[in-house]
């Protein structure tokens, strides 16, 4: 089995992360430099859950590198509908593509799938597990806006089911960052993640309310309550609508506060914030392209 799949952010070192972010910055500065470099390469897209940004930015990145994508399409229109297993599906599609991107509702699915293939496999979200490529673009955005050291970062919302949060927290533990986790008790960060972060020497605090820390934050990373992962709709309804921010919330924030969100947002961020200097979430989504170009370039044969 190959060992260069990207399944979580747990094993990414500071040097790994900085290498990809530096490469993405070079690409951002000169977007045409890699045009045609991976002419003829194909990326297999297997999305078993909805996606807009992740799928389209992978596709854009691959095409900007000169390659193309082969897309399984929706679950409804594929053989998955006939009962095909994930293991069989990836074994077939690896024969068509040079690398695979997999999103699946089941936690651990990407890791399981990676054990059946000989091409690099990238996890684009496995249930409430991980989403490491989102983390790389989050870090890219954070670095551009505020640097990545001596930073106070608040991560708010659904910390239990939010896979972007899990991947981001592990990656941030490589940097000199104070991490503040803000959520209702029922949506706290999983205890094993908190344990791991402590083991890695990360500086971690948990809060129930944003106002306890807002004025100390350099970055506030807001997340959507992951409705589709709640076993009970009533539990979702109890929490929906909390942990929102609007212009009044920001009265206690520093003028430099950077607000991020992996998107899609539902009602967590009032659109009135979009036009302020705080808002970095659309820029964050755009950064998915250079970051995924840097990553795919690495996966498809290096940066020579
Ligand atoms: C996130 C995801 O799929 O985990 N979306 C994304 O990839 N930008 C966040 C979410 O769905 O809330």
Number of domains: 2
Helix fraction by DSSP (H/I, runs of at least 4): 25-40%
Order of helices and strands: HEHEHEHEHEHEHEEHEHH
Percentage of β-strand residues: 15-25%
Give structural notes:
The protein is 33% helix and 15% strand. The model has no long low-confidence stretch (mean pLDDT 95). The chain has 304 residues and is an alpha/beta fold. The protein binds N-carbamoyl-L-aspartate. N-carbamoyl-L-aspartate binds at residues 53-54, 125, 131, 134, 163-164, 224, 262-263.
Q: Which key phrases capture this entry?
A:
304 residues, alpha/beta, Rossmann fold, 2 domains, 5-stranded parallel β-sheet, 10 helices, 9 strands, 33% helix, binds N-carbamoyl-L-aspartate
Strand and helix layout:
Blueprint: H1 14-29, E1 42-47, H2 53-64, E2 68-71, H3 86-93, E3 99-104, H4 109-114, E4 121-126, H5 132-146, E5 151-156, H6 163-172, E6 177-182, H7 191-199, E7 203-207, E8 219-222, H8 233-239, E9 258-260, H9 281-286, H10 288-299
Parallel strand pairs: 1-2, 1-3, 3-4, 5-6, 5-8, 6-7, 8-9
Helix pairs in contact: 1-5, 1-10, 2-10, 5-6, 5-10
The structure holds N-carbamoyl-L-aspartate.
């Amino acid at each position: 089995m190959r060992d260069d799949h990207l399944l979580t952010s747990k094993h990414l070192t500071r040097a790994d992360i900085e290498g990809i972010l530096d490469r993405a910055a070079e690409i951002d500065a000169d977007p045409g430099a890699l045009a045609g470099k991976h002419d003829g390469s194909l990326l297999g897209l297997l999305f078993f859950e909805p996606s807009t940004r992740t799928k389209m930015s992978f596709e854009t990145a691959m095409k900007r590198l000169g390659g193309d994508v082969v897309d399984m399409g929706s679950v409804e229109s594929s053989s998955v509908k006939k009962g095909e297993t994930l293991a069989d599906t990836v074994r077939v599609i690896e024969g068509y593509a040079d690398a695979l991107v997999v999103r699946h509702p089941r936690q651990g699915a990407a890791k399981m799938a990676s054990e059946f293939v000989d091409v690099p496999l990238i996890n684009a979200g496995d249930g409430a597990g991980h989403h490491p490529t989102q983390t790389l673009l989050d870090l890219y955005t954070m670095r551009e806006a505020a640097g990545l050291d001596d930073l106070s970062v608040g991560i708010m919302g659904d910390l239990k089911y939010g896979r972007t949060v899990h991947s981001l927290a592990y990656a941030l533990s490589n940097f000199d960052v104070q991490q503040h986790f803000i959520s209702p008790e029922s949506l706290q960060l999983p205890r094993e993640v908190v344990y791991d972060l402590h083991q890695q020497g990360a500086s971690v605090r948990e809060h129930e309310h944003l106002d306890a820390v807002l004025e100390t934050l350099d970055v506030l990373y807001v997340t959507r309550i992951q409705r589709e992962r709640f076993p009970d709709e009533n539990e979702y309804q109890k929490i929906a609508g909390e942990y929102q921010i609007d212009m009044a919330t920001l009265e206690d924030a520093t003028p430099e506060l950077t607000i991020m969100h992996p998107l899609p947002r539902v009602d967590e961020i009032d659109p009135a914030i979009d036009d302020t200097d705080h808002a970095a979430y659309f820029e964050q989504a755009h950064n998915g392209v250079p970051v995924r170009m840097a990553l795919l370039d690495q996966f498809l044969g290096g940066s020579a």
